[in-house]
Amino acid sequence: MSRYYETYTSWKQDPEGFWAGAARAIDWVKPWEKVQAQVDGLDRWFVGAECNTCWNAVDRHVKAGHGDRLAVIYDSAITGKSARFTYRELLDEVATLAAALEDLGLRKGDRVILYMPMIPEAVFAMLACARLGAIHSVVFGGFAPPELATRINDAKPKMILSASCGLEPGRVISYKPLLDQALDVAAHKVEACVIFQREQVSAELKEGRDHDWGAITGVARGQGRTTDCVTVKATDPLYILYTSGTTGQPKGVVRDNGGHMVALQWSMENIYDIRPGEVFWAASDVGWVVGHSYIVYAPLLQGAATIVFEGKPVGTPDPGTFWRIVSDHGVTALFTAPTAFRAIKKEDPEGTYIGKYDIKSLRTLFLAGERADPDTVKWAEDKLKVPVVDHWWQTETGWSIAANPVGLGLLPVKHGSPTVAMPGYAIEVLDEGGHPLPPGRLGSICVKLPLPPSCLPTLWNNDERFRKSYLSHFPGYYETADAGYMDEDGYLYIMARTDDIINVAGHRLSTGGMEEVLAGHPNVAETAVIGIADELKGQVPVGFVVLKAGVARMAAEIEKECVARVREKIGAVAALKTVAVVPRLPKTRSGKILRATMRKIADREEFKTPATIDDPAILDEIRAALAAKGIGV
Ligand code: COA
Ligand code: AMP
Asked: Given this model, what pLDDT does residue 513 score?
């Protein structure tokens, strides 16, 4: 019998008591005055409390006598290198780096941008910032310099920590030139850059501004200097993580220290069923929220070991890599995006590679980041013979809104559903007028305020955008911007976004942002970007551009330039490979572009021609343009 229902009910009956109980798992410097309260009009958790996240993730385990337990396992399927760090070694790395950063002037409240590949130093850097009370903001390595510059301008970091390169299969990406380009165009000027030199590339350092990571930590280590944890308020920001919004300007999701720790540690125990000393592997990237929560903070808060994996599910070198890692490191639970399993299934449909490894340590597979299609879930269940748990969450929440809580006892699995609301989330499906809908009816999925611990209290330096984006449409609720329904048993089904966010290989991207980039092409008058269904990546973007009057250039050339432009301005991660020049875009008589109809044509879904369409003939033009690219035929 699962303890889920009694647990959810106990939260509902006494939310503050519930979270105060969960908070006992955390070390506090000073206890809270209020478990939950409004401060300056924003909902906050553990108000008045003081703490340090790095202490809870690292020091306290060493102090409790667990210094010899494994903390971080690095495994690069690209270089073949691996390394292991115990909690004691992790503490030494983090406290030494923190001392070196302090020497460079880093203090509590300062922002630090991290532009890092998947190496253990990325984890050390995040924890060193947390140790000093500095606010990190990790930018995913697949973003191009203009995106990095946007984040530099918004977060206004004192310093940037980076590495000389990232490694993609068959490709070494030198980070320093990208970082220099971003710094050249950013209006905000940083005081220092600290660069970790990897053996594949040696980055050129600029006198005065740039520092060699190995050299500065070497000096601190040589002098035996480390830094203690700096006490911060529970409500102080731990990090800012930028995520796609409806425009090209990303949203700076703020995560606090106290609530974040409480929710994450609760989740490790009750959702993921992980105990101290076990090995948890989130095969994601520290640039995404999954990486923040489940590569770095949650496993370490729980005293478990985490894996920093540099590689891909396929091609590094084969679809057996995941099983090799599980076997080599005794992984208890694996967490990844469904797209990774679609990639493996495509290359190894029979699961032959699974049989080559001893994966009996694996107890559960967790999937999130995009809808887990039932075929993929069934394949994984069949081949791995362990429960496959889909769970639904967002950058904004930092942990799952809905899940099947393995630690409380698995509930019956329904394919296509991430199961039920977690404690802290009172979920309702609302119609356009804000009225709750009965089971089975599709609507906007909303969470009654206040949001639980770990969820964003606001957007960085932008309370107004926070309120407007999430709280204004349905007063009293947080709008998830996901549409779906709940069945009679309270199981949720997440069907689509209600905004123009698309999900490409588990990466969240803004079609609005891509449209802004395409509109910047000198020959382009109008644009539309839609997300179309893709067997491997779930969705991929497709762009349409209408040229300015009088442009007589070859369409194919402009299309190629548009593709290159998005790669240059947003990054390879946008995965925009198809742009079509079209004579016109379909619009309503009031001028609204009919993106949903275009998507249905591409996905060969049935649709009714909107009654308000300006000229139905345009839909045939779109169909022909897509067919010419082999789409929708
Ligand atoms: N730095 C630089 N470039 C990067 C990068 C990084 N950190 N991460 C990805 N890219 C590049 C890739 O090289 C690729 O470039 P290309 O267009 O030249 O091939 C592009 O960005 C798209 O990358 P990706 O989305 O990873 O697609 P892929 O085709 O290389 O691999 C999958 C497809 C399914 C194997 C891959 O997406 C994957 O492993 N997904 C796992 C899910 C995941 O990690 N989700 C994160 C949230 S949980
Ligand atoms: P991100 O902020 O990058 O984590 O993306 C969050 C979005 O990804 C959500 O709003 C959903 O649209 C989608 N998503 C994440 N997990 C799931 C899931 N398990 N099922 C369906 N959609 C999901």
From this structure: 93
* Pick from 531, 629, 608: nearest CA to 619: 608
Q: What are the strands, taking DSSP E only, across 283-417?
A: 305-310, 333-336, 364-367, 388-390, 402-403
Please identify which residue in the block is written with the tokens 């050390």: 124
- Residue found under tokens 């090209």: 248
* Ligand 2: lining residues by beta carbon, under 6 Å: 243, 289, 368-372, 390-395, 418, 482, 494, 497, 503, 508
From CA 116, how far away is CA 137, in angstroms rounded?
Answer: 11
CA distance 36 to 18: 11
Q: Whose CA is nearest to atom 5 of ligand 2?
A: 394
Q: Is the pTM of this model over 0.85?
A: yes
The answer for residues whose C-beta is within 8 angstroms of residue 76's C-beta and 6 or more apart is: 82, 118, 119, 167, 309, 310, 311
The closest ligand to the CA of 366 turns out to be 2
pLDDT of residue 98: 98
Element (H, E) at 8: helix 4-13
- Residues 401, 503, 605: CA angle, nearest 5 degrees: 110
Beta bridge partners of 587: 593
Q: What is the pLDDT of residues 497-541, one digit of tens each?
A: 999 899 999 999 999 999 999 999 999 999 999 999 999 999 999
Nearest ligand 2 atom to the CA of 288 is 3
Atom of ligand 1 nearest to the CA of 369: 48
Name every residue whose Cβ is closer than 8 Å to that of residue 560 and which is 6 or more positions away in sequence. Answer: none
Residues 20 and 35: beta-carbon distance below 8 Å: yes
Ranges of residues in the chain whose predicted pLDDT is under 70: none
Query: Ligand 1 within 6 A of 369 CB?
Result: yes
| Ligand 1 contact via 166 beta carbon (within 6 Å) | yes
Q: Which pLDDT belongs to residue 500?
A: 87
